[in-house]
Amino acid sequence: MQWWVLGVIAVAVLAIVVASRLGLVDFSNKARSSGTAGGAMGIGDEVFNPQRHEAQIELDRQTILPAPAPLAGDGDKGIYNGVVRINLDEK
Questions:
Q1: Regarding predicted confidence, which is higher, 56 or 67?
Q2: Of 23, 43, 46, 64, which shows the fewest CB atoms inside 10 Å?
Q3: Res 8: pLDDT
């Protein structure tokens, strides 16, 4: 193997590590399944108890996906009842 091939591989690995540390890429496994729905038991639940299987799929989906960010037009959803108080005297 040529010395420059090792150099190219080292630079690529270093670039991947730096990009991961800076948050530019994410290598975490977000598709892992829980222990209750994996393997043969998941197949058994799908066939003999489909409601439990569908509930587990929904739980996995809600766990993996983040909550949607609030939008500008959503309003306060009744949290503040339309009143915002700013007290500048307290520190």
A1: 56
A2: 23
A3: 93
Burial class of 56 by CB neighbour count within 10 A (0 to 12, 13 to 18, 19+): buried
Query: For the stretch 9-40, what's the b/e string if a residue is b when 16 or more beta carbons lie within 10 angstroms of its beta carbon?
Result: eeeeeeeeeeeeeeeeeeeeeeeeeeeebeee
d(CA 56, CA 34): 9
Structure tokens at 51: 């409601």
Check residue 76 and report its DSSP letter.
Answer: -
In this structure, the number of other CB atoms found within 10 A of the CB of residue 45 comes to: 19
85 residue type, one letter: R
- Give the length of the chain: 91
